[in-house]
## 1
Amino acid sequence: MSNSEIIHTFLNPKSVAVIGASSNPLKGGNRIVNNLVNNRFNGMVHPINPNGNGEIYGLKFKSSVLDIKEEVDLAIFYVPNQKIPSLLKDCIEKQIKGAIIEASGFEEVGDMGLELRDEILEITDNFKKIRLVGPNCMGLTRIDGDSRSENKGGFFSSFGVFSYYQRGNIAIISQSGMLNGGYLMHIFSSYPKIGFRYSISIGNKMDLGENDFLEYLIEDPTVNVIAIYLESFKEPRKFLDLCNKVKKKGDKTIILVKGGVSELGQKAAHSHTGTLAENERLINAIIKQAGIIQANSFHELFQYARTFSMMYTTKKNFPKNGNVSMVAGSGGAGTITADLTHKHNLDFPVLSEPSYKVLLEVFPEWMPPNKFSLVDIWPAMEKAMMNNINPQLVTAKVYDALIKDNNIEGVFNMLFCSKLYRQFNDLSGIIDEIRNNPKPFFFWLVGDKKEVEKTSRFLSQHDIPDFPSLEDMVKNFKILLQESRNKSIDLLKTNSK
Amino acid sequence: MSNSEIIHTFLNPKSVAVIGASSNPLKGGNRIVNNLVNNRFNGMVHPINPNGNGEIYGLKFKSSVLDIKEEVDLAIFYVPNQKIPSLLKDCIEKQIKGAIIEASGFEEVGDMGLELRDEILEITDNFKKIRLVGPNCMGLTRIDGDSRSENKGGFFSSFGVFSYYQRGNIAIISQSGMLNGGYLMHIFSSYPKIGFRYSISIGNKMDLGENDFLEYLIEDPTVNVIAIYLESFKEPRKFLDLCNKVKKKGDKTIILVKGGVSELGQKAAHSHTGTLAENERLINAIIKQAGIIQANSFHELFQYARTFSMMYTTKKNFPKNGNVSMVAGSGGAGTITADLTHKHNLDFPVLSEPSYKVLLEVFPEWMPPNKFSLVDIWPAMEKAMMNNINPQLVTAKVYDALIKDNNIEGVFNMLFCSKLYRQFNDLSGIIDEIRNNPKPFFFWLVGDKKEVEKTSRFLSQHDIPDFPSLEDMVKNFKILLQESRNKSIDLLKTNSK
């Protein structure tokens, strides 16, 4: 089988056996069957447990995979590490194509685990007889439709609780099962409307690793953003080649968090996934050469993923020069953002003449606007209100001028959100223009928490991001510039050949 | 009057005149009177407006301060800039001691504003006849009691909406009115239980500035944390002297955000508060010499302020060496935190023998604990559950060992919060030990948003901070180390004299 066929089978199995299925709802082997059945996996599910009694979620227990008459694509293991070798033999006999092993206790626990690994290598003839994902992982997830919609469905092999999710254009490949489990739930409930297509937990990657899945995702048209967490590179050269392929695609971005870059981190990684120490300089060289977006923490990883997801969904142009504007009702926020903009190598350029003229119109004489593109909009709002004009009309005029201004590639916004002064954060009349114009619009919301959350939900329903801090907002614009440079550098190289 | 007497009068006036008081609830001059009356300011309030008709919040309008019979300590101005000189003359005639000028349109708008300033300097004889806060500010706030308590009260001269607030040990001094207004409301509603004692908006600081208020706050026993936002230093030498005084106090910390450190930021600051450009290297030298905590954004400023506030409230010891432990249920989170810990010059030290023995007891044989102080607690939890032991008892044992371990100065915690598995985030049995032991305990919460927020509220009710990202958690520990070094370096200097 080609790599594409293998990975396709792992992500789209037609029938699966759950080895270690359990009637006890507190056990992982119960939740895997629960996740498959209740999320409408459209293939066959065979619960396997020699001690299993009767049915589980309407499905009959079988003692062994050898008792199944039909063909089986995948076996999902939720049993202690010691039992795996003999059960794998059954799977090979049954001609099952792949196994997902979620148990831990292999490379990461020293000698005993290494012996187990050697046994598995022998049984599988170095994975010629059956392919393997894991061990020490949270399984594979494919989301076909949102959990609250009629189209709910997909493939769910995690032992985590998987009851609320949304489909989108992001895929995760992770060596930390938490990112495919608890943290993913956190992300779903924290960011309204964020969506994922695949959640791939590769664990210790004894057989299949990041490159195998990456190669598949590059050709998958449903995925625009690939968010990766690695504790080691399996084949750095291959990884670089794949990243280079992504650079040539206009609609794909890779974001990477590399764990274990420091000596202390490597000690931690070793006890987590059995990773051997890698040279810090080598790691940094790989990441630099790969021309991908690097994130320093899980927070950055998912925030960046959401930003790119929204930008691809709304077909925004990425900045080429880093020239941005800001519309804010606070001089202090403008000043701090200017410092942060400078720190991250972006700029507030001078406004073009036509847009400066528009600002002169809406600003009061006693407080003329800046010539550079930091728009402290409060005086213009005050003037509007004094003349009984809806302040939203002023915002609309300013936005329109900035969208038409060729010096400007995107707009930062600070919005004051308060129930009492809802006229300032009511964007209903201009939301379509904000969404459908080609320039990224980013928001920072300040005010009463409930009103901030309401506005944030409204923005995200229109695929417009807001950020919890000014620095987050600036950094998320910087990565768009970085990505457009990654891609154009590569295009230059290609053209000069 | 001494500086202390002047500032005391500004923060604790016995009677005030609100010049520009208005019957229109949408106007700032209405909200100032509203804030004073409804928040139970216990002095006299005189609404002044020559066009004022009848009463406002039960108080009779007067045409001029000269119509008031009683003594008046302060005049709060909410009128357009052009009207201020002549009204100030009335205040001087009435022998009012201080004026808070909230209008903008002075140094920041060029020639016209500079002329106004010169006029004010002449009228006041360089502020010998009356002292001044502002212009271009949000006034002064003193909080005596929480808005929802019986002790509700204080002094409130801001034109912002001031309906929900809590008293605490933090004071703000800011050149951005937003931090004293909309953003402060944001902070109150975002961080349950954060409390402030004063909110001081100094605006363009034409007369009184950061040093005058800082000098007063250093001697005020109700304040432990002073959070400052500046766009310029008024007298850098004096500022350094005051910071040195703070270093000698065991119970006070200054946190500073400096706006306008870059050329772009200075352009923004100039159009905001009329600040003239300062040399970036000079600014950095001042901050370094001052030995204070520097924050890069508003988000950091208030997060750091909250952390110090809680640490002082619970009398925690600040770390001296940066040796921290982590208790996490995710190897990936442990690895990333190890990298971040290294990045910020902290360390996970080796556990002492007695605490390692405790870990050996609670961990299963197939997954022994690390010898260094990163505790991946999940296997121990699993072992407890298999033996029908409450996993919280395991957490309690581990915490107890870490608290007794002399190698360790604080504990990071990752907590999985889910309604289904509440046994993992139910800290009720051990919260008192977490709070009352001398080591800082920091939390990172992951899981369902509602459950995360519930746990966060519970922690903050006990003055224990949680953070939205691992990097925030690590940075907030780093500043404790930095502050203990600031103070000990200074103590060394003092001792060697």
Note: The first strand of chain B starts at residue 15 and ends at 19.
## 2
Amino acid sequence: MAINPARKTRLKDVAAAAGVSSATASLILNDKTDAFPTSTIDRVRESAARLGYRPNALARSLRSQRTHTIGLISDEIATTPFAGAMIRGAQEAAWKAGHVLMHIDTEGDYEMEQAALEAMLERKVDGLVYARMHHQVVDIPDVLTEVPAVLLDAREPTETLASVVPDERSGAKGAVEHLIAMGHTRIGFVQCVDPIPAAYQRLDGFQTALKEAGLDYNERWTVIDPLEPGGHALEVDRLLAGSDRPTALFCFNDRMALGAYNSARRLGLRIPEDLSVVGFDNLETVAPWLDPGLTTVELPHYEMGRWAVDYLERLIDGESLAPEQHLMECPLIERNSVSRRQM
Amino acid sequence: MAINPARKTRLKDVAAAAGVSSATASLILNDKTDAFPTSTIDRVRESAARLGYRPNALARSLRSQRTHTIGLISDEIATTPFAGAMIRGAQEAAWKAGHVLMHIDTEGDYEMEQAALEAMLERKVDGLVYARMHHQVVDIPDVLTEVPAVLLDAREPTETLASVVPDERSGAKGAVEHLIAMGHTRIGFVQCVDPIPAAYQRLDGFQTALKEAGLDYNERWTVIDPLEPGGHALEVDRLLAGSDRPTALFCFNDRMALGAYNSARRLGLRIPEDLSVVGFDNLETVAPWLDPGLTTVELPHYEMGRWAVDYLERLIDGESLAPEQHLMECPLIERNSVSRRQM
């Protein structure tokens, strides 16, 4: 199938079909209709629709100083399997507002990010979403001050730009409160090794839930992520093989929960009869497929994506807003990996 | 942090700093340098760099009729966790060629796709990649004939556009040949219910490998995907509980392989000692984390993304190419779920 420039309808084709001048057609198609009778307006619009006339968005944008394009710059959201729902949420909010979402993943490369930001600003985006694959504290690039901008799954220390991140603390607290409500008092924590915000905030939520229930935090029951892809979960094995083992595990994420399932199987422990397990992420490729299905805390990626773009649209519309630092609730998704403990 | 228009450097600022006229600065920054001495050219470029001058890409594109932008329209690649590496491959190939990849996911919605295509063409993209999350045969939208275009993980019946899809048949054949080389002669197939190209092509590869090895295809050992998220793998259970059970399973995808692991555990069968398992996809959130790690066939998402954009760049550069229908090899990734069978 060859490229066929003859398919492209020009303004003068529309004008000829409607029996008006090009100037008249142009004014009407740019909604400057005051000077014309309804019949002419209708004729021009019908001709444009029938001939598939497509106005030149570049030229129109130069005139209007608005491109109706939002840029989303991220490290590796589209290219990894963890947080794509953020893009879906941002996309849907942008479409709803009549914007196209132009998206570039930089793979966390500094030079690629600089180039992506330049490319977005050269194309005169109306606003920018600056996103991370997981909750991070970032130093924002200077150029983010040139257009309306919102941080997605990222915060910056000075809180001068609006941001949305998951409420890791209350998500973790809710998960542990669920285990306590199911009668568990001996609850272990499988923790992440990286010093990221989620690590200390989820630990804080875990400890707060125990404290409020009058339970002691037992450091021996906190094991640092012993999992490597394809490796062995020796620390979790040791924890679960002990005589005073916990009856429930809260895992930093669903991958570690999968590791806990592997450990339980090696030790002959049944889930949930002998061991209850709760994860974090609600990873759609893992949590529902495990046997039994994993009870876990959802990272609200879709909702965060929507929130960021909805807020950005308000900035683009010229609303004067204090830069909100929004914490998005992380709901508990109950499946079958938690059982009631007889006390 | 307020938006600060004062930060924007204008052409006249660059000209003033370099001690030349705006016309001279404009010509030099648009690489029309013939009329000027090297010292002037250097001075203008240095001033532009120092002041952070950003040329207006919209205006430049109107002049050059090139936007250095490639559009990627997909159904749900960015927003689901299965094929993001295609975007990474496409992205990297585009950057290498000096293009920005503008990406829109349409979530498989027809009207959203029409709007996305219009938006891309209005923005005068230099070329389009039209992609699917998994191998599909599609009717292409008419507008794909207006610009250079390539299909990614999709084909169309008339083969008038170039396309790249996985070589499902040879990927499956290679997996089954591996099981046969490891001494297995009783090999089951856990098959997909959807009538998609991958389903019949992988079955064909499975049957061809058996036939070439002189083994009969045993229909009783082919079970249709019995897995639902959180449900029970009863068909696989029944197959594996039988007295003449297969010693190895080839699974349509990694999710079904995870289901086979669940079945094996319920029946007290060890992997790989009692049952060898091979998957398909090499899903990074699943295959390496299972215990034992899953031997599987990789879907070459990254390579397909690169191929599509590399080919598109050649079309954009004006090369006259017959529309290649490229089959991308699917390599076997060996982990620990296959054992040698004593014959």
Note: Chain A touches chain B through 74 residues (CB under 8 Å).
## 3
Amino acid sequence: MGNLSNGILKADIKSAAKLMRKIEEEDIKAIEELKLLYSHTGHSHVIGITGLPGSGKSSLIDALIENFRNNNKTVGVIAVDPTSPFTGGSILGDRIRMQNHSNDEGVFIKSLPTKGWRGGISKVTSRMITVMDAMGKDIILVETAGVGQTEVEIKKLVHTTIVVLVGGLGDSIQAIKAGILEIADIFVINKADKIDAEELETDIYNLLSMSSYTENNNSRKWLPQICLTESVNRKGIDKLIREISMHENYSKSTGGFAQYFKYKSNNDLKEIIVDYLTNLIFKELENDELYKKLLDDLMDNKNDPYSIAEEILNHFLKFKIKN
Amino acid sequence: MGNLSNGILKADIKSAAKLMRKIEEEDIKAIEELKLLYSHTGHSHVIGITGLPGSGKSSLIDALIENFRNNNKTVGVIAVDPTSPFTGGSILGDRIRMQNHSNDEGVFIKSLPTKGWRGGISKVTSRMITVMDAMGKDIILVETAGVGQTEVEIKKLVHTTIVVLVGGLGDSIQAIKAGILEIADIFVINKADKIDAEELETDIYNLLSMSSYTENNNSRKWLPQICLTESVNRKGIDKLIREISMHENYSKSTGGFAQYFKYKSNNDLKEIIVDYLTNLIFKELENDELYKKLLDDLMDNKNDPYSIAEEILNHFLKFKIKN
């Protein structure tokens, strides 16, 4: 027990990869390792990068890795985006570009398929962050696809959220209106050489000025900045790195950084409690005669799932569920 | 008790809207109504419509509604797409277009924000399907955003999945590779007047011919068809409607339609069991002194969430969690 943790605390990539596999497989042994790692975490700066497919997140991440490495910072990447080259969703060109970093020991990339997680993507991502944090990564980049629920969930797991947009898609503003505006600490307008980039910049400024950001005159409040980049040509990356660093400092000085770790711990606790409970009851149910009978009733549409759930819980927990 | 159900079984829109609100608010009273409705469900043809923002899902849904209504079929729409006009994520033009149906009693539209669901979007969507099914809707359309986890989860809740693509986005194929191919029963290439539509059609044909669809020579196996549409101009919709009908017949003749309902019931059962258990234990924990102490340890990083979870469960359930 704890062999993997020992390796991980020494930044050993093989040990980390092994534990990550156990986490993905929901192997109960992973929990024992995570227990040993937890007190060594809370140090990495966790950065979420979200945006629609086609916004160039992968080349932006590539440019960020390059810059962080030039400044001797170690980097972990967790890709939960099905269209990311990291997760195998991309065309060959992107994949080759990413191999820039494949021989660099200071970069660790983990891709997560976005389907098939019993407990939701956020649980697995949170555990992957714990592993990379324990490895001593200075920076952890979490890439998400930027439509729907995933990136709002992931937002809770990161210190700094970067929303990547491109001009000309037309739908960017729709996506912003749909809630991405609320989660952004930094906006990146990528492919800034496109003619529509400036128009998009104006749109975001207008949206920001209408939003709650300006309602509060508290000078401590973070106002999201807009960075124009051409990540493929490495343009605008220095300014973005400065913005990221400023947000980190802001987050540390206002207590947000520490608060985040408490939030994450609390969330991890709740998820593992629900996990344990769920495993426990369904294991017990497997061989239970009453459950089999009730399940038959359900399959024959003789009874509804809600009534059956109450019967089962009364049967097992020996007390009435209170409404 | 059961007032809303009575209304819903008579297709009353106000009763349905009220129950849906209770479902969204996780009001426990919703469960009592759902119990009464459940045995009246399993009749609607549930159709998932997924695709990237900008693929024109909303105008396609608009055209489908029009067609179904012309054939005297009643329609429910559940939109879980943050960029959908139904969920308020769209520009004004789309919103006006949708108002075509706002005075039609045979159409019921429910939009779901994609964030803030404690139990995940699939639980809420499943319950909304139950309500619309009990209302007697012939067709239920479920719109999702088509990147990441949501639409894979939603796939399990529908009989027929339509994947909407457009030429020229370049990223469509990436999205297909990323798993959308596996979930499609019907492909729609929308905005087929765009020059790249035929290229995309060829790409999909090639991908399909490489996939497992053709490996099985069983004549009962469904081969996904590709429909070219211009939904704004109502072109190609008739063919799409025929495909949908063919898939419904296929699904009914092969038992998939009935199997789906059993799967849904089983899923609903598991979700409500986990819900009840979770509510139960966190309610108990709220006032528990040991929990408060352990939570303080967690916040001070003196103990890890996994060890704390075990302590709590041992304390409450009075027996050891087995690894």
Note: Chain B has three domains: 1-40, 43-254, 269-317.
